Amino acid sequence: SQKTDTCQKPKKADISVKHVILVLSGKGGVGKSTVSVNLAYALSNHGYQTGLLDLDIHGPSIGKMLGIEDLRLQAIGNKIMPVKITGSLKVISMALLLNETDSPIVWRGPMKAAAIQQFLGDVEWGDLDYLVVDLPPGTGDEALNIVQFAPNVEGAVIVTTPQDVAVLDSTKAIKFVEMMDLPVLGVIENMSGMVCPHCGEIVDLFGKGGGEKAAKQYNVPYLGAIPIDIEMRKAGDEGKPFIVRKPGETSPTWDAVDAVME
Ligand code: ADP
């Protein structure tokens, strides 16, 4: 049988990137992919060469949110070509490897590690200023693999919702990031209140302030709150990131999203 080389120090992937930012949450469905997509878009809109790497292997939704779920990854020579969304935004998603968009991926740990290494080193990313990594919810192997294989990992942004139980999960994510010896770049409270589609006022649906409380408790930065907005969900379903608005359009959610993404 083949000997595993677990004792070898992991080799950093050959990728040119100045800052790698991980996006993490304690549990699923809190808006981690939404934040990843909008953060990547915001960075590219500021003129930074940006990559978005979707490692949510078991539930990749980035493809759908960017309207590219029908595309498949291509290789030229021995390089994987990322999908170009704009001149300064390139995307790689697990979903773009699947044959059917709804088939689940059953991968064992070592396969995931190999895939993650390839998604860093074998992709034609070019020179990146930022690589935003959408990780699966919880505290799994993917985050550990990224920290092992990626250079210049700056830290993690943690997305949570205001409910107590989600906040409890997110505190686990904060501790996990600290265990990996990485800084928590900040906590974002998503689905914080709801924008009434009739009057535009913000209604406190699940309560408020849980994210800020968790951030204070663990002495990490609090980046701000994004309300529940039907337009935000529609933007995700339609494959057009919320942050890309029509000229002149304003809303309380855009103000909130702009503030967080700054
Ligand atoms: P996760 O990546 O944490 O599983 P997603 O980003 O996929 O979560 O979000 C789950 C669902 O909630 C998606 O349909 C998304 O469009 C929607 N959603 C996320 N944030 C908001 C928000 N602030 N307002 C309305 N819908 C949202």
Name some characteristics of this structure.
262 residues; alpha/beta; Rossmann fold; nine-stranded mixed β-sheet; 8 helices; 11 strands; hydrolase; metal ion binding; ATP-binding; ATP binding
Number of strands: 11
Annotated CATH homologous superfamily: P-loop containing nucleotide triphosphate hydrolases
Strand fraction = 25-35%
Bound molecules: adenosine-5'-diphosphate
Q: Determine the fraction of residues in helical runs and give it as a percent range.
A: 25-40%
Gross geometry: globular
Mean pLDDT: 86
The count of helical stretches stands at 8
Assembly form of the protein = single chain
- Briefly note the structural class of the backbone: alpha/beta
The residue ranges in which pLDDT falls below 50 over 5 or more consecutive positions are none
Write down the CATH class: Alpha Beta
Total individual domains: 1
Distance between the termini: 52 Å
CATH fold call:
Rossmann fold
Radius of gyration over all CA atoms, rounded: 18 Å
The main pleated sheet reads as: 9 strands, mixed
N-to-C SSE string, H for helix and E for strand: EHEHEEEEHEHEHEEHEHH
